[in-house]
């Protein structure tokens, strides 16, 4: 049980966490803070938070846990603003999509990463953003990755783990660098491709006709291009090297597929599509569906 939880940056991810914990009776009071009064007022109206303040120091006074739920680069600024208010008994965690940049920022700001800072990342979300989109079941059946460091306080880690488990998530630990490489491949690259494809088509002369006749395949591939541009701007900048590496590997692979299509190499085309279908059906879907998720 968390007596007083503070969410800094009340949007989809922080709001969904607050909703889930309230539903499970796993939190006493939820205090919202951030930059935009409108989101905080709306959050209180919707019952996502109990009260709010624009004053970070006031928000974290007497709190047990702070969750930084702002966009990745803004989270670094929040950590900096938290510095004067840090107490050894105040557990700080975050939900940012890139871990290496935030851990490096914590080192820069505090000299060493504070033991009570537990970096985290829920692998669940949507293309929607803002507190209005917050849902109490967003994390059910999803994984949450924690990337504790050798000096991270074990009790702080356990409290953060327990908090996420209360939302219905499965919590796994991972190394910071490994997290950023894996997520570059499975999350950041697909978003870059979706944004890139929609932008390329939108810029083409026949954009109107293309979008008019696009249906399910296009919708499924490009849903994530409706995600918040600021959030993704922050992510690709914060994880630049791993994102570039993922893009290069993919570009090489696409060039091979292009060659196979150009030379009408039926065997190579079919082999690529068969490998991909098998990997998606047997590796991705079995892992995803264990948790009762869809296609
Ligand atoms: N959306 C997803 O699918 C998803 C999934 C997992 C993790 N994340 C990560 O979670 C974080 C939040 O994402 P979201 O989807 O909830 O975004 P969101 O836009 O819904 O919410 C972000 C909130 O942060 C506030 N904010 C912006 N700058 C701030 C600052 N400097 N100080 C304090 N508050 C600030 C915004 O006003 C907004 O209320 C991001 O770091 C994102 O990378 C997102
Ligand atoms: O479901 C979506 O729309 C998401 O983009 C969620 C998603 C992803 O799966 O890539 C996006 C960013 C995160 O950091 C974690 C999850």
Automatic annotation (TrEMBL):
By its UniProt entry, which Gene3D superfamilies does this protein fall under?
6-phosphogluconate dehydrogenase C-terminal like domain (1.10.3660.10), NAD(P)-binding Rossmann-like Domain (3.40.50.720)
Q: What is its EC number?
A: 1.3.1.12
Which PROSITE patterns does the record match to this protein?
PDH_ADH
Please state what class of enzyme this protein is.
oxidoreductase
Under the heading SUPFAM superfamilies, the entry gives:
6-phosphogluconate dehydrogenase C-terminal domain-like (SSF48179), NAD(P)-binding Rossmann-fold domains (SSF51735)
From the UniProt record, list the reaction(s) this protein catalyses.
prephenate + NAD(+) = 3-(4-hydroxyphenyl)pyruvate + CO2 + NADH
Metabolic or biological pathway: Amino-acid biosynthesis; L-tyrosine biosynthesis; (4-hydroxyphenyl)pyruvate from prephenate (NAD(+) route): step 1/1
Q: Which domain of life is it from?
A: Bacteria
The UniProt record lists the Prephenate/arogenate dehydrogenase domain at 3-291
Instruction: Name the UniProt key words of this record, in alphabetical order.
Output: Amino-acid biosynthesis, Aromatic amino acid biosynthesis, NAD, Oxidoreductase, Tyrosine biosynthesis
The positions making up the signal sequence are: none
The family this protein is said to belong to: Belongs to the prephenate/arogenate dehydrogenase family.
Give the protein name, as stated in the record: prephenate dehydrogenase
Q: Which organism encodes this protein?
A: Litorivivens lipolytica
């Amino acid at each position: 049980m968390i007596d007083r939880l503070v969410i800094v940056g009340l949007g989809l991810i922080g709001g969904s966490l607050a909703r889930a914990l309230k539903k499970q009776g796993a939190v006493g009071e939820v205090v919202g803070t951030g930059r935009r009064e409108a989101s905080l007022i709306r959050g209180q109206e919707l019952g996502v938070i109990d009260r709010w303040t624009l004053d970070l120091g006031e928000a974290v006074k007497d709190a047990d846990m702070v969750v930084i739920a702002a966009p990745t680069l803004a989270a670094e600024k929040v950590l900096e603003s938290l510095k004067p208010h840090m107490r050894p008994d105040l557990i700080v965690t975050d939900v940012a999509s890139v871990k290496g940049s935030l851990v490096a920022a914590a080192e820069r700001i505090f000299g060493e990463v504070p033991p009570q800072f537990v970096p985290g990342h829920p692998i669940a979300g949507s293309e929607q953003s803002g507190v209005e989109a917050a849902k109490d079941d967003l994390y059910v059946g999803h994984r949450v990755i924690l990337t504790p460091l050798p000096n991270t306080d074990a009790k702080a880690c356990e409290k953060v783990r327990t908090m996420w488990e209360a939302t219905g998530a499965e919590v796994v630990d991972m190394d910071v660098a490994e997290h950023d490489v894996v997520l570059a491949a499975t999350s950041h690259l697909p978003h870059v491709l979706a944004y890139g494809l929609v932008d390329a088509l939108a810029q083409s002369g026949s954009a109107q006709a293309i979008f008019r006749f696009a249906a399910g395949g296009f919708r499924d591939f490009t849903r994530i291009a409706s995600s918040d541009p600021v959030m993704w701007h922050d992510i690709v900048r914060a994880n630049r090297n791993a994102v570039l590496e993922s893009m290069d590997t993919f570009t090489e692979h696409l060039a091979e597929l292009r060659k196979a299509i150009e030379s009408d190499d039926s065997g190579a085309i079919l082999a690529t599509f068969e490998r991909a279908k098998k990997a998606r059906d047997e590796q991705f879907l079995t892992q995803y569906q264990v948790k009762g998720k869809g296609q």
